[in-house]
Amino acid sequence: MNTPCHAYWRALCLLVAAAPAAGQQAATPPAAPPRPAADAELSTKAAAAAGADRALAFLVATQHPDGSWGSHSTDSLFDAGFAVETYYCYQVGAHCLATLALRRAPETPERRAALDKAVRWLVTTVMPLRGSGWDNDAVWAWLYGTVATTELQGDPRFADDRWKVPVASRGREFVHWLERNQVPTGGFGYYDDPTFSQRPKWATSFATGAVLPALGVALQLGWMSDAATAQRAVAYVKRCRLPNGAYEYDLNPIPRINGGEHINDVRGSLGRIQICNWALHEAGDPDTTVARIRTGVEQFFAHHEFLQVARMRPIPHEAYYYNAGYFYFFGHFYCSQAIGLLPAAEREGFHSQLRPHLLRTQRADGSFCDFQDTSYMTTASTAFAAMALLAGL
Amino acid sequence: MPTPTSSPSAPLFPFLLLVLLPWCTGCASTAADPLPPSAATPAAGTGDAAKAETDKKAEEQKQRQKDLAQKQRDLDYAKVAVQTTAIDRQVRVMTVESAVRHAQVELDKQKRELEQFQQKQKPREMEEHRIQLDMQTQRADEAKDELAELESMYKEDEFARSTKELVIKRGRKQLEMANRSLAVGQQEFEQFEKHTLTERERELTQKVEDAERDLEKARLEHQKAQMEVDVQQRQADDKVKDLQRDIAELEQKIKDGGK
């Protein structure tokens, strides 16, 4: 972790360690320790723009010459145990997010060059595939690959055939793999239950929600072989919705809340509420009204401490209400997208609440991370945070 | 506890008697014999008869002295026996009283065990087993509902038919397992209620009855022991009195025989 608060404590420790023994040297009053910026300073558009610039600069600076980011192997023993292929799948998924962040950012020559390299790598790299019977984390690459390629298709900078054909070709591949892996109830998930089958049987609301709007675009682009894929996915996410506004982690034929801490409580569903409301609204669901989206955003800020306390915890779901560290920037990004669906007059009020939660966690090199400090999580977190900050500008 | 037999002088006493008695009886004989035999015979005919009479008397006196010594030894032994009998009596009374107390404690314990079982343990264990059975019933009910819900969801379109069949197959198997588990649970509950608990209650009741019998036996043993030790004490006391009387008579005879 490298929050301003931790930087303060680290500086203080160094100061104490470097202090000469008593009597050796005349004591000089220590310099005032750096104080974390107040929320008011961090809630402004200017602070957001500066934070986004630093985050994007980190992405530009850390991009490999071939256009990729990070590692395709596990970076942490905490993250060991998945199929070998999975770490490459994470790299591709994180790459898609970094590509999206650069695409959405105001263009500079450095960013444009990085974006071009990133798109080139995305359309030429080996297609990630399922790593084992139970581990199908390739779905993350296919989900964000679909989101990235559908967005690139609409970007005039990539409209000429030099880009359009390979992007469309790669986009069709991502959609093809998603279609083959859509579970019978319509969702998308990254693990499977025994008996392991070519088409898996387990899905999650948030993984499915991540691709809902992009599936609509893919359908318009003619990349889908089955027009019902998107409808089924929408139905899946909607079935996960609970009466209190939360969304189930995964669809249960008969939902249950056991009365204690449960991941399907609102406090365990803060990120899912944002992405699912945003996705259903974008997919044209009439029940996902502005009032519902507003309530979800208010719930996000009312219970934000449950995300905050989970950030950087190395064990998945170890925090209250089974929140995991990696819910943090995912949740904040989709909160920014949900805010974007509210009436214009309301948006800045919510963005100004969101920004300090992001900027307080930005590290000295401009990056962000919420889980295990692996290269793929750092790339993904930084991209999510940059896009969340850009959304309010 | 010191006893007469454990006194250091007690074993010496009979021995000293044995050593000293011949000397004493010798002295007595000498004292009772006023003249030497040669000087006591006035004439040959009457002299022999008188001598025989005198010898006989002397012999009888000597025998009485021996009997007296024996009786005195017996009296000493009898006095010791009175004391050991008293100790035996005390030990035996303590033993049977302790047996009665233990039997009473055991009976109280068994009564409490039975009461605890009937009032607390039996209802609680019944409730635990009932909850388990209710959970198995609920699980079977949920498996049935979930299968119905899955089938209903899957009916909506023809998508992913073969994968759906895997899920449905799993749901059917879960329902079957839940129903089989419930059937076993019902049998187990019935056995627990009608056999296991009944048998445990019967065993505990039996233990109470056994303890009651043991207490009654201990009380009877106590009574019997009390009577027996009373008789033994009386016998020991009577023996001392008899010996004292015998000794007095013998002493009187010896005294009379000496005249």
Largest sheet of chain A: none
The number of domains of chain A is 1
Number of strands of chain B: 0
Largest sheet of chain B: none
Features:
heterodimer; A: 393 residues; mainly alpha; Glycosyltransferase; 15 helices; 0% strand; B: 259 residues; 88% helix; rod-shaped; disordered N terminus
Topology diagram in text:
The complex is a heterodimer of chains A (393) and B (259).
Chain A: H1 4-18, H2 39-42, H3 45-62, H4 84-104, H5 109-124, H6 138-153, H7 161-180, H8 205-221, H9 228-239, H10 270-282, H11 290-302, H12 305-308, H13 327-339, H14 344-359, H15 375-391
Helix pairs in contact in A: 3-15, 4-5, 4-6, 4-15, 5-7, 6-7, 6-8, 8-9, 8-10, 10-11, 10-13, 13-14, 13-15, 14-15
Chain B: H1 12-32, H2 44-154, H3 161-257
Please give a structural write-up.
The complex is a heterodimer of chains A (393) and B (259). By secondary structure, chain A is mainly alpha-helical. Chain A has a single domain (58-252, 263-391), classed as Glycosyltransferase. Helix content of chain A is 55%, strand content 0%. In chain A, helix 10 (270-282) packs across helix 13. Mean pLDDT of chain A is 91; it is low at 1-27. In chain B, helix 1 (12-32) runs antiparallel to helix 2 and helix 2 (44-154) packs antiparallel against helix 3. Chain B has 259 residues and is mainly alpha-helical. Chain B has one domain (61-256). The longest helix of chain B has 111 residues, at 44-154. At the A-B interface, loops of A face helix 2 and helix 3 of B.
Task: Give a short synopsis of this structure.
The complex is a heterodimer of chains A (393) and B (259). By secondary structure, chain A is mainly alpha-helical.
